[in-house]
Amino acid sequence: MSRRLYMRAVACLLATALALPLAAPAHEGHDEAAPAAVGESPRRQPDGSVFVPKSVQRQMNLRALAAAAGEYPQAFELAGTVAMDPNAGGKVQAALAGRLQAGPQGLPVPGQSVKKGQVLAYVVPTAGAIERSNQLAQQAELRAAQALAQRRVARLRELADTVARKDIEAAESELHSLTQRLAAVGAGLAQRDALVAPVSGVIASSNAVAGQVVDARELIFEVVDPARLRIEALAYEPAQAQDIASAHLALDGQAVPLRFVGAARSLREQALPLFFAGDAQALGSLALGQPVRLVVQTRSRVAGVRVPMAALQRNPSNQSIVWVKTAAEQFVPRVVGYLPLDGVSVAVIQGLAAGERVATQGAALINQVR
Question: Positions of the region Disordered (predicted)?
């Protein structure tokens, strides 16, 4: 081989050797790009488990909690409403049909404070034309009879020496009777019924407008003491009322303790009314008739594994499941049975063992991985 050919071959080999290191990394990076992208994304495995890389767990803010076994008081939820204490609230109704007039301080408005016995409004009776004419005619007859009785009494008193004392007393009694009857008829024509506050508190509702015509027994005002409100709930299983240990009100994400006052002994709408009292400051922010949600704990206890209610999810078969962390990046679904505890936690009675790590925060995100 000539020297020229030998140098040309060496140059080709060097060019090939220099080109291989540059091309190999580019080809290798191109081949591994797809597997790296797949490995960094959560995915559901063929066996139903979910693979979630650590980096994604941090982005999803996943948290797992070791489940603890024990015996816990069983609980149930009730729908309730805010009611007034019958000893610290009342209703103001019209006893007569008539027209409303403002009281000495005007008509009160909702939220206004009132004192017990304060005159809130007046009801002026409205009589028909015939009834009023009869009253006026009766008043005229009584006036005439009164005038005659006055003159008769005056004559008998002048003849007191010759007239028996009993005759004078009878005439005076008749005059007094006519005077009282005339006053009663006159008061009936100008009478007005005063509507007074039955208790001290605030006006919860008002249906009063000056000049309004109301019927007898029509509700005009409601007065309530905000510091003495009650919670009324309906239990559709009367046995629940016999097993109440404690209760609390779920209000704005906080648990307000309640005290069980008692249960009625007669059904209302096929349910047993239950009554609870609580902190005056907490209940004072509620409105009369406002719907609330109660969590009642019973004396009965249930054995199980306690987990937060946020850990419960639903699978495609609409079964209750929890996601158990079996490995650093592996979550397995478990079908469970549970009983409510306190409105925040549940007791899993089947499908979960104590000590297993259950996904709590972010469990809904794991359930959405496909």
Answer: 31-50
What is the secondary structure of 205-256 as a DSSP string? EE---TT-EE-TT-EEEEEE-GGGEEEEEEESSGGGGGGEEEEEEEETTEEE
The DSSP H or E segment spanning 143 is helix 129-158
Query: If you count DSSP H runs as helices and E runs as strands, how many of each does the chain have, helices first?
Result: 6, 23
Alpha carbon 121 to chain centroid, angstroms: 31
The pLDDT > 70 percentage for the chain reads: 86
CATH label of the domain that carries residue 290: 2.40.420.20
Taking alpha carbons only, the member of 119, 51, 108 closest to residue 328 is 51
CA-based torsion, 65, 70, 72, 77: positive or negative: positive
CATH number of the domain enclosing 167: 2.40.50.100
Same structural domain, 174 and 234: no
Residue 306 within any structural domain of the chain = yes
| CA distances from residue 241 to 134, 248, 325 in whole angstroms, order as listed | 60, 15, 40
Strands of the sheet containing 213-214, edge to edge, are 193-196, 119-125, 98-102, 213-214
Its domain, for residue 130, covers 89-222
- Whole-model pTM: value is 0.59
Report residue 71 as tokens. 């015996």
What DSSP element (H or E) covers 26? helix 3-39
pLDDT of 89 strictly over 80: yes
